[in-house]
């Protein structure tokens, strides 16, 4: 090893990603230690950083080329020592000149004064904040004003970020490509209007409303006129994920759905008010769609009219089948504890989608219309490689036995299904057809029954969901 030139050792160190392995290699000899110090560009610290500010100073001096830093205090308690504070964040911004990706998670000691120090990090392109309760919108504004190269911003459970001047400033910069806002109670769909012309730059958008605050703040606050005047197309939007949002005609995010011409992946999870016309319009515009996930919310709390029904039916699935020839991944589900509407997705609608699109991954949750006949039809699904069925109570052993006939199926996951037993898995035992079989919380399937049914088997049984 002593005869290896530095550039070969450098490449070897670059291949080893596990932090513990890198630490072990750096202890082999002084040469490896020095090369690792120069080569390492990623650092993750947390509760073991004590005293935090002094330790961070030492680490930043040891690794001069750090570009990505994660500070995660999940599980922190006061007896573990003081967390990284504003002074520590100032040390980080001053001592790590190449910093371009920073994550602060459960950092409860950092305030606007500390986060403002990041404005001097000219190379910062990604900032992720998870539960930093003392940071407000003014601190975020300081960062976006100073960091002109910011491309990704993730805000998760940042409860005190209410001012949206930072969002308006980002809209004027037109540089942000990845925006994620999850469970920030003071930010609603109507605030996204501030994003302005940056809608045409954004590639990934994740927006999640706290379910406990959905009805309290969203429906009445959506500004109709400003959204209706937004004619800027979302041509670069590739991934869109909306959770617990209101999708109301002519309002809020409904105005975005039919403007995503190049969308590849969409997730609508418990979004109230999604209609067939929303999905039909999306399917017609987004011919490049590869993945769609729909968890359909019950709209019992909203008015229902015959002319404008707030529900999804087979018409949505037909539009996807006709227009999205690249669709590979489909997830359809209904929330636990709610009985799907009879007018929702039928077996024929689901099977039509599978027949016309090259579906490789199919996940069905609480879809009571999918039964043994559906499993029989999947025997001719030429592309299906992964199947997940959860709470599909109409599937029995007769349908499960047909899995062995699915042409390309390699992964099968079954969860909380009451109609299947060990008998349904018997044809798979010893067949070596499946790479992976996962069985979770199915009361009539035993751990013995899954043995040998796949090359890799995962079994869990917690029946508390039944009571």
Poorly predicted ranges (pLDDT <50, ≥5 residues)? 215-223, 300-308
How does the helix and strand content classify structurally? Answer: alpha/beta
Outline the biggest β-sheet.
16 strands, parallel
Our Rg estimate from Cα atoms comes to 26 Å
* Spatial arrangement of strands, main beta sheet: 1-2-3-4-5-6-7-8-9-10-11-12-13-14-15-16
Give the fraction of residues assigned to helices: 25-40%
Terminal Cα span: 62 Å
Strand proportion, as a percent range, falls in 15-25%
Average of the residue pLDDT scores: 87
List the total number of helices: 18
DSSP summary, beta strand count: 16
Query: How does the overall form come out from the CA principal axes?
Result: globular
Write up what this structure looks like.
With 467 residues, the chain is an alpha/beta fold. It is 28% helix and 17% strand. The protein is built from 18 helices and 16 strands. It has helices spanning 6-15, 19-26, 30-39, 52-62, 86-95, 112-115, 137-146, 165-173, 214-217, 224-228, 254-257, 276-285, 314-323, 347-356, 372-377, 397-400, 422-425, 447-450, and strands at 42-46, 68-72, 101-105, 126-130, 152-156, 178-182, 204-208, 239-243, 265-269, 291-295, 329-333, 361-365, 386-390, 411-415, 436-440, 456-460. The chain has a 16-stranded parallel β-sheet, with no helix packed on it. Helix 1 packs across helix 3 and helix 12 packs parallel to helix 13. The longest helix is centred in the first third of the chain and has 11 residues, at 52-62. The chain is globular, with a radius of gyration of 26 Å. The model is unreliable at 215-223 and 300-308 (pLDDT under 50).
């Amino acid at each position: 090893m002593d005869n290896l030139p530095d550039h070969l050792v450098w490449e070897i160190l670059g291949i080893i990603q596990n932090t513990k392995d890198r630490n072990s290699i750096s202890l082999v000899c002084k040469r490896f230690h020095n090369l690792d110090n120069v080569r390492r560009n990623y650092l993750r610290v947390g509760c073991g950083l004590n005293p935090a500010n002094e330790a961070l100073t030492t680490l930043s001096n040891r690794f001069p080329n750090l570009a990505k830093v994660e500070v995660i205090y999940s599980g922190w308690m006061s007896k573990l020592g003081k967390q990284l504070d504003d002074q520590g964040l100032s040390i980080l911004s001053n001592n790590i000149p190449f910093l371009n990706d920073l994550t602060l998670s459960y950092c409860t000691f950092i305030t606007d004064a500390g986060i403002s120090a990041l404005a001097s990090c000219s190379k910062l392109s990604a900032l992720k904040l998870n539960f930093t309760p003392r940071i407000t919108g003014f601190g975020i504004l300081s960062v976006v004003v100073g960091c002109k190269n910011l491309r990704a911003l993730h805000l998760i459970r940042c409860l005190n970020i209410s001012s949206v001047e930072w969002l308006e400033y980002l809209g004027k910069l037109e540089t942000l490509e990845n925006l994620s806002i999850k469970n920030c109670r003071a930010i609603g769909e109507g605030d996204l209007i501030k994003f302005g012309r940056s809608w045409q730059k954004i590639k990934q958008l994740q927006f999640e409303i706290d379910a406990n605050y959905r009805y309290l703040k969203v429906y009445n606050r959506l500004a109709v006129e400003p959204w209706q005047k937004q004619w800027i197309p979302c041509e670069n939007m590739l991934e869109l994920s909306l959770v617990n949002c209101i999708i109301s005609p002519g309002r809020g995010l409904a105005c975005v759905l039919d403007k995503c011409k190049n969308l590849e992946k969409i997730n609508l999870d418990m979004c109230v008010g999604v209609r067939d016309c929303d999905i039909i319009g999306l399917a017609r515009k987004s011919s490049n769609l590869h993945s769609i996930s729909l968890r359909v919310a019950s709209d019992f709390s909203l008015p229902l009219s015959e002319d404008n029904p707030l529900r999804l039916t087979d018409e949505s699935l037909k539009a996807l089948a006709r227009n999205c020839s690249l669709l590979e991944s489909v997830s359809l589900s209904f929330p636990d504890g709610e009985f799907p509407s009879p007018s929702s997705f039928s077996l024929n609608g689901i099977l039509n989608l599978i027949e016309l699109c090259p579906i490789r991954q199919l996940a069905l949750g609480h879809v009571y219309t999918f039964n043994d006949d559906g499993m029989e039809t999947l025997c001719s699904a030429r592309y299906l490689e992964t199947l997940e069925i959860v709470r599909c109570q109409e599937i029995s052993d007769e349908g499960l036995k047909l899995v062995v006939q699915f042409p390309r199926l390699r992964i099968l996951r079954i969860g909380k299904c009451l109609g299947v037993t060990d008998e349904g898995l018997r044809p798979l035992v010893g067949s070596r057809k499946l790479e992976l079989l996962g069985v979770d919380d199915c009361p009539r399937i035993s751990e013995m029954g899954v043995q040998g049914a796949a090359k890799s088997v995962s079994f869990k049984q917690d029946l508390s969901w039944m009571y």
